[in-house]
Amino acid sequence: MRRVIVSFFVLLLLLTATGGLALAGWADHFPAPEAMGPGSVEAPSQVLNTLTPELKYMMVGSLSYVYVFATEDAPVTLAEQFSHQPTPVLMARINSSSLQIPAGILLPGKNYYWYVESIHAPGSKSEATKISPKLYFSTAKDSN
Question: Out of 1.10.760.10, 2.40.50.140, 1.10.3210.10, 2.60.40.10, which CATH number does the structure's domain 25-139 have?
Answer without folding.
Answer: 2.60.40.10
